[in-house]
Amino acid sequence: MIGCARWRQTELQVLEWVHGQTPRSAVRCAQMVTTLGETPVAWAAVGASCLLTRSGGRAAPIVTLAVAAALRRGLADLIDRPRPPERLWRTEWSGPSFPSRHTTLGTLGAGLVAVNLLRRPGIVAVPVAAAVGISRIVLGVHWPTDVLAGWAFAAAALALSGGRRRNGRR
């Protein structure tokens, strides 16, 4: 238990440092970037990419997103980790903190779209995933480990999905 308390204190110090160092313009930017992890944005992007691809298995990315989103929600409800202190929030939010929904859906959505449409998916997916995750910390609504877990959860879902590229090759 002492290790957990110490880790929680370290995460709080990180959030307080970020809060104190982040200019308002960066907060506004984070508020815009975080929308890439919104549920409707992920669904619309993945759905559109499925319509644009000619390869077989067009529904596979949608199924991956649906299953991963449901599993993430179940995990969040099971763990029910509280969010950081509201004094650090730069946006309104509610619900469990771990793993970060925005980070998970932003990473998974960008990854599925990129794998579906691009020859080199990491060029787009990695920066989007990084930006959404960092935005959640800048906005003060997630602990750093919530974001790390969101990235890991989405990466695992992408790996398990065996994503197909637009030309049908793996």
TrEMBL record:
Gene3D superfamilies: Phosphatidic acid phosphatase type 2/haloperoxidase. The chain crosses the membrane at residues 122-141, 147-163. Residues 60-162 form the Phosphatidic acid phosphatase type 2/haloperoxidase domain. Keywords: Membrane, Transmembrane, Transmembrane helix. It comes from the Bacteria. Signal peptide: none annotated. It holds the Pfam family PAP2. This is Undecaprenyl-diphosphatase. It comes from Amycolatopsis echigonensis.
